[in-house]
Write a structure and sequence with these properties.
The complex is a heterodimer of chains A (294) and B (217). Helix content of chain A is 29%, strand content 23%. With 294 residues, chain A is of the alpha+beta class. In chain B, helix 1 crosses helix 2. Chain B has a single domain, classed as Glutamine Phosphoribosylpyrophosphate, subunit 1, domain 1 (4-Layer Sandwich). The chains are: A alpha+beta (294), B alpha+beta (217). Chains A and B meet through helix 3 of A and strand 5 and helix 1 of B. Chain A: Pfam families: Pr_beta_C (PF12465), Proteasome (PF00227). Chain A: This is Proteasome subunit beta.
Amino acid sequence: MMNIDQRPCESQRGGFSFENSRRNAMLEENLSKLGYSAPKARKTGTTIAGIMYKDGVILGADTRATDDMVVADKNCMKIHYIAPNIYCCGAGVAADAEITTQMMASNVELHSLSTGRPPMVVTVTRQLKQLLFRYQGHIGSSLIVGGVDATGTHLYSIYPHGSTDKLPYLTMGAALHSVFSLSLSTDRSGAAAAMSVFEDRYKPNMELKEAKTLVRDAIAAGIFCDLGSGSNVDLCVITKAGVEYLRGYDQPAQKGRKQGEYKYKPGTTAVLTKTVTPLSLDLVEEAVHLMDTK
Amino acid sequence: MERHTTDSRVKGVSTGTTILAVKFRGGVLIGSDSRASIGGSYVASRVINKLIQVHDRIFCCIAGSLADAQAVTRAAKFQLSFHSVQMDSPPLVKAAASVLRELCYSNKEELQAGFITAGWDKKKGPQVYTVSLGGMLLSLPFTIGGSGSTYIYGYVDAKYKADMSREECLQFATNALALAMGRDNVSGGIIHLVVITEEGAEHIVIPGDKLPKFHDQ
């Protein structure tokens, strides 16, 4: 199909076709005029973080998935398996993060079988970045990839448009819907809160216990300070020896316990009068459907 | 000269930026700040290095969308290394700039990245080229770019001298970058400088507390 922007003498170049993007934008505009809004994809809201410590890398994430302002999943898994020595935290649109990481896991397995070598973190990052760049930010997933491979410990962040960054400590949140968004703080999610904890307390070559506490505190900061993040803290510790996946490592947000008894005894409210009026209804039709409970 | 994107319109992570490159006696100096921002209000990274080495003695600095810039420089790096193997000699700085220009011009609808290429080659010695957003290629004795450059046009026009020494040039570039970083909210962090001469490339980092101060209370 011919692209409107192409010069007429050129045949269709390869690559993703963005024709429907224009149609979708027009549809959204027309829908809002009628008073409806386009269905929003479920986002993970989210606070994810990663640090490099003495023996490897620790990834952390909260466990809340939101559908606009409703919590869709109170205990979702945001730390995804890529390879035995490489894990990836995903923020942004839940479906995008999930599918992208699953695809990457199978690509990495095939690549590793083809090369005959265990997979490298930089391979995963390169493939993810090229995939996301090809889709020009329409795949709304922000990722933190961390792992230990033959060349050492690595931690990368990948933004939805395909840019990457390699740092000793990273936090990410849900992607911005549009660059013109005014409520930047809610779109950023807990990333800023978590980063403030890291900037204050991160030291290179920390011990395991200290490092786990730091990541837990950073995610907890995101859980408390961001509406899109909540529930539990998941941690994933990756070292040369192996992986320790700590699902539900901590539950910082405990539901408050009621301090008093709020029940009233029957008879607390006096009954003054009681009137019973039977409604005379005619039975018109009766149908019985048995529920199959086998 | 070139159109400067206002930062809020760059998709994804933006390099914000102040970048410059200056020719001096015997070499060329290329420098940048170290801030990457999202939406003009959150610093995604405060230590990013925007000076990308595309060949032994050719560096380019990036401005605009970080994703686009990373993709384009990767493609350019590959093309240049292949080209240098084919020609059996290091590529010309003009060749590097042309590769970037070709990529920027053919994909001008989709890309939002501008570059400054600087380096040294045997044919013409030290050179500075600028490739703007739409794919215009210009050769200049010195050039500045990025959102922060608007604040230092006056300074560089007044203070630039042809044929400076290495030390004078370092001071000139450091001052210019510090002034821009002081006024532009999406430029900041530390200063990265690379000095390229016939001998090779030397990377200098000036941390935030060692930046020159101008009437800062």
